[in-house]
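[Backbone geometry]
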Amino acid sequence: MTDAAPRRHRIGFFLLVAGRAIVRAAPAGRALDLALALALLTCAIASGITFFGEARSLWPPLVAGASALVLLGGLCVRRLTPTVAVAVFGMGLGCAALMTVFAVTSGFEQELTLRLSQVNGHILLTKYGLDFYEYEEIADRWVADPRVRAASPFAFSMAAIVPVRVGEGGEVSHTQDSSARPSVVIGKGLDPARAEALTGLTRVLASGGVSALRPSDLRQRPGIALGVDLARRLGVARGDLVRLVIPAALGGERGDVSSPPRHAVFEVLDEVNSGVSDLDGSLALVHLTAGQAMFFGKKRVTGIEFELHDPHDAAAVADEMMAGLDTNLFRATTWEQQSASTLAGLRQIRAVVALVLGLLELVAGSALVASLLLLVRRKQVEIASMVAIGADARAVFWIFESVGLVAGVVGAAAGVALGQLLCALLAAYRYPLQDDVYPIDHLPVALAPADVLLPALGAVLICALVSGPVAAWAARQPVLEGLRR
């Protein structure tokens, strides 16, 4: 048959027979209907508490997830034959588990790259050696490019920081609080006039602006912005004073190691909340002139950070940038290169966990094989009758193959619905992570279209593959033996 209309009719017939073969004929009891209603009500209440409740308790999302599993299992038992219900439930559970893992790993990848680029920009241009003096010319040249949103020179150095207190007469001294100990920090100097165009930087600053990075003058001390975890560890808040200390060895001085360190007192005017624990616990932002005087004693910088309108243009812009510079002196790195090792580790974890959880779908596929074998045994009379009235072996094959495809589609649809609910619960709960183990303070969730399609297509493909041998065996059933039965 080559015409499109008869082909559509035949496909519809196969799907109709397959649906009648897996749908349960006997009605479910009242006890099961009551259990389903109770599971649905519990899932709705627990989900509402998770999404709209202010208390951050782990019980509501757990109850909602467990109720959703009970609801899915009950629906499968109520509407499908028992053996097929087991396969569909397992396929849905495997699909939902894969979706959740993909969503979490994608969320980690997006959050890490976003938060690291917020502080370091999309491109970092540095110069080998200690003589980067032409930074203003390079920044002015590239900030005129329509792809570049901002170009901000920065000065970088490791430093020590300690809280200080104001005594009588206005003099400052080290605090006597034993719980507030000196900390090693990442000191970074920025020019507020250029840095205010960095949208990533303004998002991580609590005030939403760069006014805290003020220079020193005769009337006021210079300002400093500290990471939220660093400020908490030092026991300081806005308006308090801290002393930033640069040892002589870190300042590049090769003379006597006993040379006095550079130090200055800063007023805490803002906090940095990037969501990356390593940065929030060690970052200190100051004005560029203060950083140059403290870190180098010269008017030079460590490099220039560029923020682009489209982060995916970073590689092309970096290549063009290096084409006009001496590659022996300058180096341009993109945000993708800076986080390459982290992204590679995440993708390896994603592949391994996906492989392990994919076994759930294979187990569900084996349950489907058992269901189809039992179905063929029970339907030998019907198979023989169809062949006797003119159906060929190919028609019998596609009928049982359609049973596997329908079971796979139903399981994939159930898994997609369950997976979306689990991902939504995780995103709403914002499961907290330990700062000393993970670089992000909560479990991120980002569900991309591929994270939904791959598990669903995998479930349908597995069901189609495992149904093939059983369907071929059904097509070879002896007609006379079936008619005798």
